[in-house]
Each structure stands twice: as structure tokens, then as C-alpha cells.
Specification:
Length: 496
Amino acid sequence: MQAYFRQSFDFLHRRFNNIAFNFVAHISALKLILCIAIPLLVWAMPSSWIPLDNLTVTQHRAIFIFTFAAIFWIMEPVPIFATSIVVILLELVLLSDSGLALAFLNQEASGFGNILNYKEIIGTFASPIIILFLGGFFLAIAASKYNLDVAMARTFIKPFGCQPRWVMLGIMSITAVFSMFMSNTAATAMMLSILVPVLACLDKEDKGRIGFVLSVPLAANIGGIGTPIGTPPNAIAMKYLIGDNAISFSTWMLMCVPFALFLMFCGWLLILYLYPPTTKKIELKFKTKKQDKRASVIIYSTFAVTVALWLTDFLHGMNSYIIALIPMAVFLCLQVINKDDLKNISWDVLWLVSGGIALGLALDATGLAAVIVNNIPFGNMSLAIIFLLAAITGLIIANFMSHTATANLLIPIIAVIGTTVPGLEAFGGEKVLLLSTTLAISLSMSLPISTPPNALAFSTGLIETKHLAGMGIFMGLIGTALVFLMLYCTTSLGLI
């Protein structure tokens, strides 16, 4: 009888698993179908149905591509970097001068609109922004390969003593600084591994365990604000901060590093209030591998030279993109990094950024962004509402989708708004509007899916969504308010 019940239970268990698997598969298929169907409906509908005046054919197609990118980046029926590749392909086929022949039979007709040069679209793969990210990736990969990241972290934490609150501040400070010059995802992964011996020193019932885990993604998300290469939204914004609106690497740091450190300090106080550690003392012990002295000297020297050149760009005249090539050239020529190490580069991030740049190019070159702005009565809105609406929109959307994808969607439109709305010059103009929106996007950190650092911390199993939400909502709102205060002060002082 027992064997009979056991067999029946196993049969029901397998049957339930099959039903659950089929249900998930059907839901995924339905989501993919909807994500494809909605953009196709936008493409198929007559232009007269779209509430925008005087749309050209290429602008209508740009709306289709924009809708496709937005839905696929938000719903993620396929990886978000794959969506970026499809966006570039669609632009080449539908909007370029080397696109599908049938698509351009009437390109000379009145109302067809502007056609993009295919070289400009493909050139987004080699945009200066991509080179900037590659330089940061090379620094991170080299430090990780030779275990120098752990060695530096151990050296930096030691001065903070043994009291849990100060050790937490030390870990947050190191994470924030690393996130300024390398991927905040890589910085989080590194610091979470260093956090293991710290958590081992805490009692299992100590609330401080939650606080320590939360402190790492918080510091990583905020630390990335400090430099133009700290987060993809920063880099995307730099694409539009050119000409009269240009901001140098050093000016960005002079403005944003103090802001990031102050905001991180506020986050530290919040975590100590919500999750105070009860353990009295932490004894840290790190195990480091034997280091390659030659590689260590090369990496430390190159890192110092690269950062020094980034900080002094106003003296030597080289921009941050050119400087980013230095670690790439040095590490490859001196064989600190080999061809196998190149596989560890986050190519998915580079492709995602490329897709965003290409989407911005399409919105701008077809004139769609200008048409959208011209059809919105910004002139009837107060300047304060425009600034607040742009920042809050970025803050909310970026909690539910990639920060990079949010920046890809919003910043090109914000850039056009900044050049068309009168009166913005009194508040810093397009530059301040772009910066406030960009920094608000980087402050979105309320859910596990909001940022990779959040997802990494959530994967430890030591925190729950409610922990991230409580911290993220508060820091997002307070941080956005402080962004406006910081930009007001820097504008008043003439720094930007």
C-alpha cells in the first residue's frame, strides 16, 4: 500500500511539474507575441491616427522602431542586448541609404523624410562612448585577474577598525570609489565576495547582516554617479553634453563626487537606523593569492596614470575617450591581458549601449524627437514642472527596466526639449535638464530588477524585495531632491 501511494505521489508530482512548465512556456510565448504585435500595429496604422502633425514616412518608421525597443526593453521577451542588435538592424533596413530596396521606392516623394547614412548607424558599435567603457572594463579585468582588487579592498578596509558600523562605512566607501571607475556590477560582485568573512563574524540573528548586504548595492549604485564612466546613463548623457554644453571629466567629478559621497553617507545612516548591527566587534581575515609582481606594478601604474589623466584633462587637452585607450594598449602589449581574458569583457553591455545610441540617432536624424517636442505644450508649463516631470519620469521608469534602456529612451527626447523650451537658460539650460534627468535615473534602486547590483545582492538570499524597496524608495526621493539642490548650487557658483 505504501509503495502504491508513493508511485501515485510521484506521478502527480511529475504531472504538476509538466503542467507548470507548459504554463510558463505558454506565458513566455504569449508575451513574445504581444511584444511583436504591438509595434507591428503601430507600423500598420495610418499616420493620421498618430496624434503628431506632419509625420513623414521615416518618422513613422522611427516610431515603430522606438515602440519595438521600448516594449522589448521593458518586457524582456529576449535579452535586452539582443533587442539593441535588432534595433540597429531595423534602422539599417528601414531608415538607411543601404536599406531594403522596396522600402525606398518612393524615397524621392514629398513627405518621405530624411534617410540615415548606414555608416553612421553601424558606427554606433565604435562610438567613443564604447571605447570609454572598454577602457574601464580593461582596468577591472586586469585587477580581478591578478587578485589586486581584493588586495586593495583589504588595504582600504583596515583603517576603519573593528566596529561594525565603521566597517560598513569602509565597505561602502570602497564600493563607491571602485564604482566610479569600473562597472558597478563588477564592483558589487567583488565586494560581496569580500563581505563573506564579515558576515561570518556577525550573529545569525543580527539585523546588521541585512544592512551589510544592502550597503553594497546602495554604494555601487550611488558611486557610479561620480564619474562619466561610472554608469551607462552617464555615458549616454555625455553623448549630448557637447559643444556649448560640454562638461569635462574633471568638472563632472568635481560636481558629482561630493554629491555621491554625501548621499552615500545618508544611505549609511539610514541602514544603521533600519538594521543596526548588534555584534560588538568584527575581526577581518582575508586570504589572498600570491601576486605577480610584474603585473601588479604595471596595473597599479597604469591605473594611476589613467585616473590622473582623466582628472587633469583641462591641462593636457586629451578627452576621456582617448585616455581610455591607454590601459587597453598597455595591458595588451605587455601581455597583462591576453586573448582569453577578452572573453570576460561585458560585450552585452557594449551592445546595449550601442543600440541606445543608434535609437537616439534615429530619433534625431529623422526629426521625430523634434516633432514630439513641438506637439507638447511645454511653453505652457512652468520651468519647475518641466524639470520635475523629466526627473520623476526617469526615476519611476528606471525602477522597472534597465537604467541604460531608460536613458536610451528618455535622454534623446530630453536633449531636444532642452534646446526648444524658452527660458531654460536662466536655470542652466539644456545641460542642467540633462544632468538632473540622468542622475535621477541612476538613483532608481527599489527592486531587484532595478540594477545589476541589486540583483546580485538579492541573489545572496539574505535580503528580500521589501528590504530593497524600503531603502530604494527613500533614497530615490531624497536623492532626486538633493540633485536639484546640488545643480542649483553648482550653477550659482559657475561650475557648469
